[in-house]
Amino acid sequence: MLSLEISSSCFNQETKLLAFEPSRKDMDEVEEKSKEVINVTTEKLPVDEVLQLVISPLCGAVSLFVGTTRNNFEGRKVISLEYEAYLPMAENEVKKICTVFHGLGLVPPSEASIISAVSSAHRAASLEAVSYAIDTLKAKLPIWQKEIYEESSSWKGNRVLWGIQQ
Amino acid sequence: VVEVLYFAKSAEITGLRSETISVPQEIKALQLWKEIETRHPGLADVRNQIIFAVRQEYVELGDQLLLLQPGDEIAVIPPISGG
Fold it and tell me: Which residues of chain A have pLDDT under 70?
């Protein structure tokens, strides 16, 4: 249950990371990468680490999308986002697509909630792929965000899930 | 006997993250929902927004016949908002 007591200690709470990697990248010539599932850290989502996971001597381009928490929604001050996930299913959905780090638990404003990265031989493919990846992930992943305001909170929801109207 | 997993709003309504329930091996998705709603009447508020994930595949709350095995996982999926 969500505690409505918002204090500065919330922002020291451990942010869990969800790290998904494809075991095979769908690119020209691929490398096998080992798969990490969950990484627990007090630090922010590691852009450098994500880059290192996708950079390859075979690829001339890396495209990165970083989603960050905004501090406002419809005129209300957002204290933080809080994420939860159906982990085994999210992992299975994502690993076909790209390398993704997603925050779990509290993600305060200006921090990254999601990083997705795709590398390719040339830039057009990776730019297009990362755009496709983030669109697909948002339409399909069983992950939920709750906006936490000063006085209340609200579960956000996209009412079309992978083509199904909810 | 299957395991039902609750997320987001549905977890707040039921006060549970998961529970095991006993249902027929063959059951329509909507019937399964009604079973769950009987146990947690507060879920009626979100009935029109829920989808199941049965063995990690999304299934609408309709007439689709589910063939359930003991220990299968059924997740109650409110509208998603990852990213």
Answer: 1-43, 96-97
